[in-house]
Predict the 3D structure of the following.
Amino acid sequence: MSRENTITPVLPVREAEEEVVIRIKDLRKSFGDNHVLNGFNMELHQGENLVIMGKSGSGKTVMIKCLVGLMQPDSGSIEVMGKDIIKLDRTALDLLRADIGFLFQGSALYDSMTVRENLEFSLRRHKERFKDRADTETLVLEALKSVGLSHATALMPAELSGGMKRRVALARTLIMNPRIILYDEPTSGLDPITAKEIIELMRIIQARYRTSALIITHDVDCARVISDRMILLVDGINYAEGTYRELQRSADPQVKAFFK
Amino acid sequence: MINISRQGMILIIYTVPNSAYLWIYNCRDMHGIKGISGKVAGFFRLSGELSRFAGRYFAEVWKPPFEIRELLHQCYSVGNRSFPLVGITGFIIGLVLTLQTRPTLQEFGAVSWIPSMVGISIVREIGPVIIALVCAGRVASGIGAELGSMRVTEQIDAMEVSGTNPFKFLVVTRITATTLMVPVLVIFGDVLALYGSFLIEHLKGNVSFQLYFNQVFNSLEFSDLIPDTVKTFFFGLAIGLVGCFKGYYCAKGTVGVGTAANTAVVAASMLIFILDFIAVLISDIFYEL
Ligand SMILES: Nc1ncnc2c1ncn2[C@@H]1O[C@H](COP(=O)(O)OP(=O)(O)OP(=O)(O)O)[C@@H](O)[C@H]1O
Ligand SMILES: [Mg+2]
């Protein structure tokens, strides 16, 4: 079974593509003398899979942490679904965050809680939101089923493998039924086969829940399979932009370095 | 007899300078600055940050949602973590203190004073301070390491993104739990210390249970006990505050978690001594009035 046969890129949804769900303008962030982001611009469209690639330490994680209000940028504007993240108060921000799923680089499961409690934890502040959908138990099982881990409800995170942790973390973001999912290196630290399974899972989720996704990675295979569009983050700016094929053909040495 | 009291002395002589040294060493370690001025600057910066953290705690503790379940869980965990250690420490303090005082008082023919003397020193000073120090070692380091590793593995960020305020869920509950539980642990330790002291008196002087505790309670006045109980709440607050502060702002990496746990113990112990000194000063002023 060759990879080309099993995985084909998801085609962009043309008519919905016009709506912008995330718009970042001139984002700047420094830590002392370390200028990490120097005017980064980006737009994520409804239903799109946008891949951001960049070297380790280029500020990818810093960028999406600014995006959900975990870090304050020095300057620039971030609009998520029409709302300016930086100006929102706590309540409004929490409400908006319920629409954004965040898959952390290291999974970030709460290690004092079971898998079930990990999933339930996301729901505890958003009870009203799910009243009409189903009870908590059903939601938890549904989310775990969609990542193929229905049997793991009672396990502790320490008892899971890296790949399983990533799946549980994915289930934890899915349970909120988010409109946007931010993936911070979904395949890092996984073997190629498990990585492929996670990518496949991301594609299924995208097709089923019609989410928009921002995927941060330095895994070229992952980018090729999943991206509708790509941005290369170099020196804190969006250095190059385009589809996978366009960027692959680029003659620019900085861009070429990513595709070796 | 003499042997035991000498060992007690050696223990004290060894521990106090040693912890002072550790503290100074850690100050240098934390801020990476050398020289006395650097240490002083570091100390003031730390105090400033810590009081801002305390301010945030007092601002948020009154606001809903109150994480009652998590608070109860933390109270249980603080108590469960420390009570064997506190019990043993208390009991041994009672034994040692009585054994040490006995020969001296015997010389003056004042053995009958032992219950009042030991009772006062345990309930008013030694009990609260030593048991708070034990809790600092046990609880502050535990909280520092726990929150530190949650910070390093981005669990605190994950909580924030999921709409739960991590400061309320993790920090406020833990500080409240230590504030409530340390006084309980101190009372528990005091009781065992008095019991240990009674055992020695019973074995050596054939004093009955009733006589012993009658004497203890006769020598303690209710107005004495209030400031001594109030200060244990502050000890608990200090332990929770320092543990949470160190863990919550833990530096990245596993080294950061170790440092958080380590410095939490040292800073909490230091704060307990300072608070105790202030408490004694204040109650002294009221005594004069
Ligand atoms: N809290 C922080 N304090 C100081 N510097 C930071 C902080 N967070 C990140 N940095 C710095 O910002 C830069 C970018 O870090 P970031 O984590 O965004 O990299 P990344 O692109 O996600 O890399 P990787 O692919 O390894 O995850 C690094 O140089 C890092 O040292
Ligand atoms: Mg990163």
In short: The mean pLDDT of chain A is 86.
